[in-house]
Structure formats: C-alpha cells, structure tokens
Design brief:
Layout (H helix, E strand, L loop, with lengths): L9 H15 L4 H9 L10 E10 L4 E9 L2 E9 L2 H13 L4 E10 L6 E10 L2 E9 L2 H33 L1
Antiparallel strand pairs: 1-2, 2-3, 4-5, 5-6
Helix pairs in contact: 2-4, 3-4
InterPro entries: 2-isopropylmalate_synth_dimer (IPR013709), LeuA_allosteric_dom_sf (IPR036230)
GO molecular function: 2-isopropylmalate synthase activity
Protein name: 2-isopropylmalate synthase
C-alpha cells in the first residue's frame, strides 16, 4: 500500500484488523487504510446513517423518502424510481452528492420464514476504485440502503485519508 513502517504500529494494526474482520467478515485495502488513520474504527463512527425510511410502491412507480444523518446534520429527501431500491438510491445519491456507479447488486435470503433476513451485497465504483457494501435486514429495501451507505461511508473515510495524506505531503515539502 506504500506506507513506511514508522507510519503505523503493526501489532496494533493487526489487532484492529482481526476485530474488523470478525465484525465484517471481509476486509478490503481501503478498510486497512482507514484502520491506520482512524484507531478503533466502528460502525458508530459512520458519517452517514439512515434515520428514517418510508417506501410506497405500486405497479407504475415507487416513491421513497428518507432522513439521513450526515455528521451532526439531518437531511431529508424524496425520490421516485423504477422500484423502491432505485428510488432509495436516488435519495441517498442526492443527499450525499457522491457520483457512484453501481457495478453489481445481489440480494439473498438468510434464514427461512417470515422473520428471515435479506442480505444486499453491492460492488460500486467511485473514481476508478471498487468499494464493497453489505446490508442485512428483514426489509430488503432497508438492507439495500444499508449496503449503499456502507459503500458511501467507506468512500467518505477514503476521502478523509486522502486529505490527511495530502496534508502530510504539504508539510514535508
């Protein structure tokens, strides 16, 4: 990844990696970079959080409205789409301002019966870099939103890391 050994403590990074891997199941390069710069990275530290979700769907179009926590500010948005997930994603894109290309979207059932969970897994592209997101809920629209917000929070952290790296470069010049 191009970092010098004096820029991080390998033992601490490895311990944090194991905790994150246990929680998420998968750890990607951008997760490792975030661990290096943000000690004790937790889901509670996510910048974007879904506070409210309302969906109306029929045979013609779907409408979604959301309230999204963006740091200390809550923003509301509504959108129509080809389906409830499309409408939700349009809301999230508008609020966050990220220009994301969705490369892959998978929805699978976890468990059986009425209380079974739906798991949404996505791969998204942002500025040429792939990001992975996962969401799990009894509501597949909510699971889909969680997956996209997982991606967007990873992008947000990556942007913060890039800013830190640029500041360090400026300081050394």
């Amino acid at each position: 990844m191009g970092y010098r050994e004096e820029e991080y403590d390998l033992d601490t990074l490895y311990a944090d990696f194991l905790k994150l891997a246990d929680r998420k199941g998968q750890v990607f390069d951008y997760d490792l970079e975030a661990l290096m710069h943000f000690a004790n990275l937790r889901d509670e530290d996510d910048f974007f959080k879904l506070n409210y979700l309302s969906v109306q769907s029929g045979s013609v179009m779907a409408t979604t409205s959301i309230k999204l926590q963006c740091g200390d500010e809550e923003k509301s948005e509504a959108a129509v789409g080809n389906g409830p997930v499309d409408a939700l994603y349009q809301c999230i894109y508008r609020v966050t301002g990220y220009d994301i290309v969705l490369d892959k979207f998978d929805l699978t059932a976890k468990g059986e019966g009425e209380d079974g969970l739906g798991q949404a897994d996505i791969i998204a592209n942002y500025k040429g870099r792939k990001y992975h997101g996962t969401g799990v809920s009894t509501d597949i629209v909510e699971a889909s939103g969680q997956a996209l917000l997982h991606v967007i929070n990873s992008i947000h952290r990556a942007d913060q890391i890039e800013e830190i790296k640029q500041n360090k470069l400026t300081e050394t010049v």
